[in-house]
Amino acid sequence: MTTVEHILGDDWTIEPAGGSTGAAYYAQSNKKRLFLKRNSSPFLAVLSAQGIVPKLVWTKRLENGDVVTAQQWLEGKALNVEEMQHPKVASLLSKIHHSSELLDMLLRIEKTTVTPDNSLAMVKEIFERIEGIRDSLLLYKAYKFLENRVNHMPVNETVVCHCDLNHHNWMLSQNGELYLIDWDNARVGDPAMDIGRILQSYIPKDDWDQWLSYYGIENSRHLMQRMHWYLIIDEIVGYAWCVQQNREKEANFHFKELNQLLHQVNDWNL
């Protein structure tokens, strides 16, 4: 990180901010504070302009070709599980999904759009590649569910999906501004991918219709079908990754979630 220190000057203190990539840092000098990230997506500028992430202060290219972005470092906190039910969450997600500027930019830098066909192909590849996956009756049932319903999945509208809506990625500033951070997994696809994750993980089922009204749509059978289809894919992918990483406890969590989803689609006749 010496190259970044050279850009900022000797009076700045830089510390790792954690995260899986090791490319994020906190920088501090007297009363000035910045959040730095190496090689973040050019998508960040549009997100900043729309107030979805903390303000982008500057972007600089290093001698080695890396690009470093600096954002406002805001005092705030991640949302807890209960706070995810607040209408502000639904409203911000709707704003993201309905932004033509975000969609235009991501389509320019993202190679492919998530479709039912390429999602099913990804799951099929997992079954063929990872030993033991095919032997599970539950995983086999899940795959057959996906396969049997893939032709009912298409939608007219694709949007920018965040694809990692864990409550830790929702940040509430001390001024009450809500931000959605960590856009490394963003893809263009069916909005049901994001909607389903929030509903299934954070919203009591009796409140789904109310949450969707905050988002700006009515519940429908087609939405529930698409939502559960992508949720099942998420759990299969998560389970397979945990198995490969020997994370047995997390793999068991995905397995239980998958079992619950299959019961839901059966009970609701989806």
UniProtKB/TrEMBL annotation:
Pfam families tied to this protein: APH (PF01636)
GO MF entries: kinase activity
Keywords (A to Z) from UniProt: Kinase, Transferase
Signal sequence region: none
Residues annotated as domain Aminoglycoside phosphotransferase: 16-228
Protein name: Thiamine kinase
Species for this entry: Gracilibacillus ureilyticus
